[in-house]
């Protein structure tokens, strides 16, 4: 993908998080990667979304070297880079402080799969990371945040659980494309809100048959599906 096209797609994903009500002020950040060149494009740090332009999107290499240095890259850059290096399947990463997902992150509670809406996008609970050690916080906070996400996803397919809640911080979400990641970030907030409300309505919730959850996920993302807005292509 040409760098200009990648920057435009990344800008659009950043603006989609605003339109979806997932970010306020300058919180959050979206990035995308062109796997052929190993170029990552990410939101500039601290720039108000309503003033953001494609040429302000910052390009860096997968090891973090600035390709163009007109703007300072997002302060969460190293988290995004850790995820791109660990998950070669993904093409975009989005971080938000969306309200309900952040409630679960602050409460250190995974988002449970309480319904088929969840199952359509996330295979199983959306996990919460561990807290970072004092040394990690002091010496390599942003990169260690990415390490904790990779650890909590473990050996699962990152495209089957395209999100994790960073303990006491907020969600990081990903997908095959910036558009896919923006949709996953929106759905994550929706299922977090549904789960929180269901848990308030009925604290002792009945279990859902795994067969129902699996059917919904595989129906949308079966082994030969194309992820993203268009859903399964089977
Ligand atoms: O996670 C946080 C702050 O906790 C960041 O998303 C937020 O400050 C946005 O920083 P950037 O503008 O991307 O550097």
TrEMBL record:
Protein's name in the database: L-ribulose-5-phosphate 4-epimerase
SUPFAM superfamilies membership: AraD/HMP-PK domain-like (SSF53639)
Keywords per UniProt: Carbohydrate metabolism, Isomerase, Metal-binding, Zinc
Family assignment from sequence similarity: Belongs to the aldolase class II family. AraD/FucA subfamily.
Record EC number: 5.1.3.4
Organism encoding this protein: Roseivivax isoporae LMG 25204
Catalyzed reaction equations: L-ribulose 5-phosphate = D-xylulose 5-phosphate
Cofactor(s) required, per the database record: Zn(2+)
